[in-house]
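Hi everyone, sorry if this is the wrong subforum. Our group has a chain we'd like a structural model of before ordering constructs, and none of us has done structure prediction before. Sequence below.
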Amino acid sequence: MKKLLMVLLLILCLFASGCTKNTKTTPTDNSAPVDDPAPVDDPAPVDDPAPTDDPAPTDDPAPTDDDVIRSPFMGISFAIPEGWTVLDRQTIAARIGANEAYALADAADVLANHIPYVELWAVDSRGNAVQLMIENPPITMSDGTSVETVSDYMDHNMNYLPETYRSKGIEISNGERGTVTICGRDYESFSFSTGFGSNTMTQTMMAAEKDGYFYTIYITSVGEDITQETLTRFSTDE
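Answer:
Right subforum, don't worry. Here is the predicted structure as tokens:
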């Protein structure tokens, strides 16, 4: 249980690095463990999303069968591993400290306010996780830095996240900055590992730009690194 709480805390720390200042979605230390999702008691409110006429992704990922989730914006699918759980909109909102308006709003309304839209969050009982997130640049990072390209976005994470983790008493290792191709599209990437007790956690973030938006894939591995195996589960929709 302690391991899962630590994993969730680190995931929220990672997400906070890319959130705009006006989201008001401060993570809480009272979040539930990954294998037993439950709402936090007092999630910080976000500004109610306002309608917009600007083109933006509008569809939530929807199952195409029992174990495949589509991302209409990127035109890709992700095959959910057996035994994993896909979090619903209310649970995702609670995990990031957002309110009911966030859970009910569609992607276009959220992104119009430059608030990150978490399109998918899937977890297993060990603490492994996959998240898909869309953002509307320019993005004001949690330290006030503004980024407008996915390269700058990932460079910032590479420089900022290690110091953030160290401030929490967590050392990181094996930091690697590069690019990776997923379903024919190049993504800027950054990965690193952390150790707590006898456990190792690896986090990999990969971001690409499409139609003026950032699309980020986060993979969290606890123990064995499942990054490459997880990437094989993405496919292009015909």
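For your construct planning: The first strand starts at residue 63 and ends at 65. The longest helix spans residues 150-167.
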